[in-house]
Design a protein that fits this description.
The complex is a heterodimer of chains A (329) and B (445).
Chain A lengths: L1 H28 L6 H9 L13 H11 L11 H12 L9 E5 L20 H7 L15 H5 L5 E4 L4 E4 L8 H5 L5 E5 L6 E4 L7 H7 L9 H5 L5 E4 L2 E4 L10 H4 L5 E4 L6 H9 L2 H20 L1 H22 L1
Antiparallel strand pairs in A: 1-4, 2-3, 5-8, 6-7
Chain B lengths: L23 E3 L5 E5 L9 E2 L6 E2 L4 E4 L8 E2 L4 E10 L5 E9 L23 H10 L12 H5 L9 E6 L8 H8 L1 H15 L4 E6 L3 H11 L5 E6 L8 H9 L14 E5 H12 L6 E7 L7 E6 L4 H7 L7 E6 L6 E2 L13 E6 H4 L12 H5 L6 H9 L3 H6 L10 H5 L6 H20 L1
The chains are: A mainly alpha (329), B alpha/beta (445).
Chain lengths: 329, 445
């Protein structure tokens, strides 16, 4: 009995020792020399593996950036500038900072603006719906409202607004671009966040001519070109009956938005313009005035701080009026 | 006697052939037609007329230049109003030629008489293919694949038998049934021409057993046409599928991912055979087709001979307008047809029927969890596993989808029809098919 235990211990022990020796030499022979900085960079990264940087996860990003030896073209949208500076410190490089971006929905075809003409009862997938028909509102370019983008978002930065039937991007969007890829109609776009989250963009991607576009949606871009004429910075281009505002060239002067006959140009997070509420107070019934005045007080404060915008305001309006006359004649 | 059919899978949906007894009625020419320039499963055609041109019936208005494409002819005479993007049945805009009708003037050389021309002895094989191509004939069963391409047998392959598809396995539709009854003789001459064009001496017309009158009628006629035989088939959906029909008629199986010519067969629809007769014996291009207009709520159903480009609303109006309880208007049959976005869309070469479904039947039932009953696998005529394919397509595991032969799916909808949990299996499989197709194409390039 004792012998059996002894044999077992000795033989297994011997096998273990021999295997250990073999493994030691094999490990020496096939040793993978890896840059220790890869681990260090990976440590800094958020480990979200979202793919927003364009690589297959955080580890791959770390490997590639160490291999490249410079930071050109590398950006982790999740961590943003702070994180890229940290990565730069690990690598001993100067971080190339990119403006923070956010996903923007370029469609305003809500149930109200683009009334339902057909009903879709298939699978709730934009990709499937896109292959079958043009959309419940009739617009062949607009949002289908099945929420592929919301499903694709790993950061809980999007939700479907039940009232409008359109997805909404929340401020915590890190611009990983997953929703942009998920959208079969290229409606979502990554745009610069700008100072104070202020953005101006054309909220429409309809390439049809004015008439048919307007027939399906009251807020469609009809490609009239009025915005292009007032833009002093050549930021607006019109192609295929659709205006596009270049986020880099745009200086947020706000001249284009009031020009748009269909309100397709959106200004986000701007204080309301001075003139508008005043007019409303005069014309509207007294009951409404209370709300309007409270609205008016708050924005005025902001306008004082952002003086460069506020100053430009009043002369612009005259100019735009002139332009309107010109285009009409 | 045990009737022939395909062996794998299949379902038997309620037939509902309401309009079977209604003879073909010629629909009045509309005031305006819009003819899409691309009505073919292949490369789009190029319009060759311009705004303001006067066109005659049968005049070429769009030329198919690529190998897999087809010519488009004017179905009316009148003035070209515009060449513009017009809404099609899915709500997307497609380039179309819009013509304002003025009279009914035909091109010279087109024989519009009712007289049947039987003599085909002077025809040459190459001429037949060339004429079919010029007439813009496509598969009228619904897939709209150019017919002349089917007749050009690739090198190294031999065509042995021509199979004519008179199955019409889709519920409700009766267009092919009426055609076989009323134009039997012309149909058989068309088959003879196709046989000559293909270089075969045997043709089988596959007809499901629920069209006994058509089987009898054609059986009587085939005595004068050597080589052509009628094969009655057991009623089973989707027998009208090319591969299913080959299996049913000559008991051969087309390998996965291959064309029917691999087993020596070429399949054409009865509608196509009739169009071939008209193109070659009467010199008449494909400018009209038979469309069934049917539905349970309609007071009247009909089989119309319709000029291509007629608005679908005209057809519906002729049978008494849309009933109040309309839920869906479908182009095609209930199994494979597509719901229309708007009834203003035009009849195209692939429109085999207009089906009006009432509110209660149009609604899809709420999908619940899969209970792993395996019914979808049992009924799949291609031997696929629909529940698995739909799931991997949904999860975007396209490798697994490709390995499990998702591209073999013929989109017949049997799986969705039988599913006790009302799962949208085919929707996801279609999604998977388009994605896998893209991946495969990019790999080839």
């Amino acid at each position: 009995m004792n012998d059996i235990i002894l044999y077992a211990v000795v033989s297994l022990g011997a096998i273990g020792v021999i295997a250990a020796i073999i493994l030691f030499f094999v490990a020496q022979k096939f040793k993978v020399i890896e840059d220790p900085r890869i681990d260090e960079v990976e440590e800094v990264l958020p480990a979200a593996n979202c793919g927003g940087c364009g690589f297959a996860g955080c580890r791959n990003f770390a490997e590639e950036i160490v291999k490249a030896g410079n930071m050109e073209g590398f950006n982790c949208p999740v961590g943003g500038a702070d994180l890229m500076t940290d990565v730069g410190k690990v690598l001993g490089l100067e971080a190339e900072l990119k403006d923070p971006e956010i996903a923007v929905l370029r469609c305003n075809g809500s149930c109200e603006n683009s009334p339902q003409k057909a009903q879709y009862d298939g699978v709730q997938s934009c990709f499937v719906a896109n292959a079958l028909f043009s959309g419940e509102g009739g617009c062949a370019f607009g949002c289908l409202g099945c929420g592929d983008c919301v499903e694709a978002c790993d950061f809980d930065a999007m939700y479907m607004d039940k009232e409008t039937g359109l997805p909404v991007v929340k401020e915590n969007c890190i611009a990983c671009g997953a929703c942009v890829k998920a959208c079969p109609r290229d409606i979502l776009e990554l745009r610069k966040r700008n100072k104070k989250e202020r953005r101006i963009f054309v909220s429409c991607v309809n390439k049809e001519k004015g008439g048919p576009a307007k027939k399906n949606c009251s807020v469609a871009c009809i490609g009239c070109g009025k915005c292009q004429k007032v833009c002093k910075f050549d930021a607006i281009t019109i192609e295929n009956n659709l205006a596009y505002i270049d986020p880099i060239a745009c200086k947020l002067c706000r001249k284009c938005a009031p020009e748009c006959p269909t309100n397709a140009i959106w200004e986000v997070n701007f204080p309301p313009k001075k003139e508008r509420p005043v007019v409303e107070v005069k014309t509207d019934a007294a009951t409404k005035s209370a709300d309007v005045t409270t609205e008016k007080v708050a924005p005025q404060k902001i306008e004082k701080t952002e003086n460069d915008i506020a100053v430009k305001e009043s002369p612009d309006l005259k100019e735009t009026n002139d332009n309107k006359e010109n285009t009409e004649s | 006697m045990v009737l022939k059919t395909f062996k794998l899978g299949g379902v038997h949906p309620p037939e509902n052939k309401i309009s079977a007894a209604k003879s073909i009625e010629i629909l009045a020419i509309p005031a305006r037609v819009s003819i899409p320039v691309s009505q073919v499963l292949g490369a789009p055609s190029t319009p060759i007329v311009k705004k303001g041109d006067m066109v005659k019936v049968g005049q070429l208005i769009a030329k198919g230049e690529a190998f897999i494409s087809a010519n488009v002819h004017s179905s009316v005479s009148g003035k070209v109003l515009k060449i513009d993007d017009v809404l099609d049945s899915s709500g997307y805009r497609k380039s179309s030629v819009v013509i304002d009708v003025d009279g009914d003037e035909w091109m010279d050389g087109i024989d519009t008489s009712e007289e049947i021309i039987r003599d085909i002895s002077s025809l040459q094989q190459a001429d037949i293919i060339e004429k079919i191509k010029a007439a813009g004939i496509v598969g009228l069963g619904g897939a709209t694949f150019p017919s002349h391409v089917k007749l050009m047998v690739p090198k190294g392959k031999v065509a042995e038998v021509l199979i004519i598809n008179g199955v019409e396995c889709e519920p409700y539709l009766t267009a092919d049934h009426r055609l076989m009854l009323e134009k039997g003789e012309q149909l058989l001459i068309g088959i003879q021409i196709l046989m000559k064009g293909l270089g075969v001496d045997r043709a089988i017309i596959g007809i499901e057993n629920n069209k006994a009158d058509a089987i009898d009628h054609l059986n009587n006629l085939t005595a004068n046409y050597p080589g052509v035989s009628v094969q009655p088939l057991k009623v089973q959906y989707p027998q009208g599928g090319e591969k299913q029909l080959i299996k049913a008629c000559i008991n051969r199986e087309v390998p996965s991912g291959k064309l029917p010519i691999e087993v020596g067969a070429v399949v054409n629809n009865v509608g196509t055979a009739f169009a071939v007769y008209e193109a070659i014996q009467k010199n008449k291009p494909l400018i009209e087709r038979i469309v069934t207009v049917t539905g349970k709520s309609l007071t009247e159903t009909a089989n119309f001979m319709v000029r291509i480009g007629t608005p679908i609303s005209d057809l519906i109006e002729k049978v008494g307008g849309l009933p109040e309880d309309t839920g869906k208007v479908i182009s095609g049959g209930p199994m494979m047809g597509k719901a229309l976005n708007s009834v203003d869309a035009a009849v195209v070469k692939g429109t085999s029927g207009i089906l009006i479904i009432n509110n209660t039947e149009a609604k899809r039932s709420q999908a619940v969890n899969c209970i792993r009953c395996g019914k979808c696998t049992t009924v799949c005529p291609m031997g696929l596993e629909p529940f698995y394919l739909s799931q991997v397509a949904k999860m975007e595991n396209f490798d697994a989808a490709e390995k499990n032969r998702i591209m073999d799916c013929i989109e017949c909808g049997s799986c969705m029809f039988i599913c006790p949990s009302y799962r949208p299996l085919l929707d996801y499989i279609r999604l998977g098919k388009s994605k896998v197709g893209k991946i495969m194409r990019s790999r080839q390039n």
